[in-house]
Hints:
The protein has 3 helices and 9 strands. Strand 8 and strand 9 (133-139) form a beta hairpin. The relative contact order is 0.15. The protein has helices at residues 8-14, 19-44, 46-51, and strands spanning 56-59, 64-65, 68-72, 75-81, 89-93, 96-102, 111-116, 120-126, 133-139. It is α+β, with helices and mostly antiparallel strands. It has 2 domains: 8-44, no CATH class; 50-139, Sandwich (Immunoglobulin-like). Strands 3-9-8-5-6 form a 5-stranded mixed beta sheet, with no helix packed on it. Helix content is 28%, strand content 36%. The radius of gyration is 26 Å and the shape is elongated.
Amino acid sequence: MFWRKLSVQQEQVRKGMSPSKKAIIVAAGMGIAFGLALFGLWWSGILYDYITPQGRVVIWSYGFHPPEAIVKKGTSIAWENLDPVPHKIRSGSPSNSNDIFVSGLLNQNDRFEHTFNEVGTFEYYCVPHPLMKAKITVTP
Length: 140
């Protein structure tokens, strides 16, 4: 019998793994890895910092996203609680609340809105979770 050396492609076909099948498996694996990475960023809240539209703050994973925003005078900011636990927003800091704006208790999917008519930097925090802090800077 005459033995000849098989090419890599022929060897893969002989073993049941054609190049196109291998490419599909590699592409599927990369797609799954990319999807898991995006899910991890979404779950941690980091992704919200980059996709949250102007005028909206999302409460997620015990954090405000984005944690800092710059808006023009007269802009309304809407906070939306996507956490399964309630949050309450109050301006100022836990040791020095100034009550420029205070929300009621926001359950999951509840919203609170405030219009900023004064120029300045407005810090705020979550009353039940005082380590949750953020700020809005209002420009002319």
